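USER:
Try writing one entry.

ASSISTANT:
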Amino acid sequence: MRETLRIFYSQIKAAAEHIEFVFITGVTKFSRMGVFSMPNNLVDISLMPEFGEFMGDTQKELTDNFAPHIKETAEELEMTGNQLSGEINRYYDGFSFDGKTRLFNPFSVLSFFTVKRFDNFWKESGSNTIVRQFLKDKSLLADQFEGLEVGRGFAREPGEIDAPPRKGSSASQVTWPCVR
């Protein structure tokens, strides 16, 4: 994976004079992997408030831009427009980058309107194999994370995912900066 990323980033850096803007996204943020020396001018906009509405659809955008699809799909699924909108909210209004603006997952919303059924489409757009394997290797269960909160520093500087546990912690403890 690291070698693939090194090659990818070196190609971007080599073409830098021809590129004005590049947007790279992913589910898992990796830090200190030794691949980021290639493009030494990356700016992580993930948690910058001015980009809080940048990577998803707001409620207003969904209502304005998908009105014909909402109407058509509601009729097809024998629901009212309000019922359908409520279910769309329940399924796909799931993230926020600035802590206040709720965003709909664009991939999931488009997939929903394509097949006209509610499903967890996000899992088809990527893999969480690395995270799943990490949790398995550390004998961590989902319920161990219930009620945990993480500070802003966690998202900005998550640490190395394959780093050894911190001194004084057992392999089954979360080694990230989590607080109750």
Q: What stands out?
A: Residues 2-14 form the longest helix (13 residues). The longest strand covers residues 93-95. Residues 127-180 form one domain. The chain is about 35% helix and 5% strand.
